[in-house]
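Journal club prep — side note

Before the paper discussion, L.F. wants everyone to see what a predicted structure for a comparable chain looks like in token form. Sequence:
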Amino acid sequence: MVTIVNDDLLIVRLSGIIDSGAALALARELNRIEAAGAYSKRIVFVDENLSVALKSGDVMLYKSLRLEPQTVTKTAFCVFTDLQYGIARMFQALLESENHEINIFRDRESAAQWLAVDIDLVREQSD
């Protein structure tokens, strides 16, 4: 699920099972939303019980479908488990570019601070 918080911030919540179909749907949804506005900050909240069923080819297809940001963009991943951290690192390695900086955090406060967004706004959207 993607939430537009304001003109600058998108919040993505990943829950349930993320498989090839879910990843493709997310890529399309993000492209659709971002075509209407330049969101320079994103937070990806990974549900504690998220199940990931992606293969490396699925991640490469996701990457090929995503539009490269035209402006400087920052994405903060908020993860809970070591497995989620590892998967977020894989996305970081594949998606980070000159215009797209990605960082991974274990709590939303650190993510909000890195993005320079109001923590109360992040708490409100993540609860």
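L.F.'s comment for the group: Helices lie at 20-35, 56-65, 82-95, 108-115, 119-126. Keep this in mind when we get to the figures.
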